[in-house]
Amino acid sequence: MSLPSRHALVPFVSVDHMMRLVLHVGIERMMLELADAIEADFRRWPDFDKTPRVASHSDIGVIELMPTSDGQQYGFKYVNGHPSNTRQGLQTVTAFGVLADVATGYPVLLSEMTILTALRTAATSAMAAKWLAPRDARVMAMIGNGAQAEFQALAMKAVCGIEEVRLYDTDPAATRKCAANLAGRGLRIVSCTTAEDAILGAQIITTCTADKQYATILTDNMVGGGVHINAVGGDCPGKTELHRDILLRAGIFVEYPPQTRIEGEIQQLAPDHPVTELWQVITGQTQGRTDAAQVTLFDSVGFAIEDFSALRHIHQRLQGAQFFQDLDMIADPDDPRDLFGMICRADLHSSVA
Asked: Any stretches that span the bilayer, and where are they (predicted)?
């Protein structure tokens, strides 16, 4: 049986490949590169197709598709969110993604995105904080110390210069895990027993929880002026982390309003409550933080353009590297009109051997 042609082969980045690539580049360096790639695509935001992600909700979680295109390349991510998975020893979030050539429709990359989503989520948070947080921010509170926490802390260190991270989780074991993983990485780590303790002295407050049981993480009296809140969470209808009164006095910045109003913190507000799209701040069309005492909020829900940016960056990073394998994914008959004949002419014995 003849070998697949080059048109049939699609680079595949496995979990092992992704881990080796990240360690090869360096975690913080990868965060910086992804933040730059995402910011570059935010600067050309109008070039992209945009739609709220296609979500299939159940009583125990959600499965979503997140597509976008800039007219040259097309990308999508499959991702789930199942908070109860951890009780079975499973990940809350898993994902994979595809990058394709618009001109032919052929995929050019298939990649794991469980790790890549963690990286791009943190890189997006840090990119937003660069534009919205107080310029002298050096202390970060990390409320929710699960799978995303270390990524958030290191991205804020790499992009924004954070020096101290104050940790809190309702599960002390999660805080111990996070503190151990961050030890020796150039951050002062303070483990806290309450959320109130964690936010003391913090200029950046990141909330990142998944369980709907703990709906209100920050109450209005906990948040003083001059802070930036990065609300990550496990966004979906009904899932919020901030008390409504915080939203009413904050400058709110979002990715794509039609999606954020369904899934983000602002689902608590009127449909016409004013928000600012982050890309407009980055391109200088509008102002970000207006004064030192302002409370800014990045109501982060994750948007397909960020995944597109991450896939595009990984695809570029693979050039001249060996952190992938070629998969025989695309049928490529000698005559494109004779797919049936390709099957009939296959040498099954040779293929099995």
From this structure: none
- For the domain that residue 341 is a member of, what is the CATH number? 3.30.1780.10
Gap between the Cα atoms of 353 and 351, Å rounded: 5
The residue assigned the tokens 């913080």 is 28
* Per-residue pLDDT tens digits for 20-76: 999 999 999 999 999 999 999 999 999 999 999 898 989 888 899 999 999 999 999
Question: How high does pLDDT run on average in the chain?
Answer: 93
What percent of the chain has a predicted confidence (pLDDT) above 90? 80
What is the C-alpha R_g of the chain? 22
**Which CATH number is 179's domain given?**
3.40.50.720
Q: Give rounded-to-5 percent helix, strand, coil for the chain.
A: 40, 20, 40
The pLDDT confidence band at residue 234, using thresholds 50, 70 and 90, is low
Using a CB cutoff of 8 Å and minimum separation of 24, what contacts does 190-197 make? Answer: 190/164, 190/165, 190/166, 191/167, 192/166, 192/167, 192/168, 193/168, 194/168, 195/143, 195/168, 195/222, 196/222, 197/166, 197/168
State the total domains in the chain: 2
In a domain, 1, yes or no: no
**What sign does the CA torsion over 91, 234, 204, 125 have?**
positive
Portion of the chain with pLDDT greater than 70, in percent: 95
Q: Which residues are catalytic?
A: 235
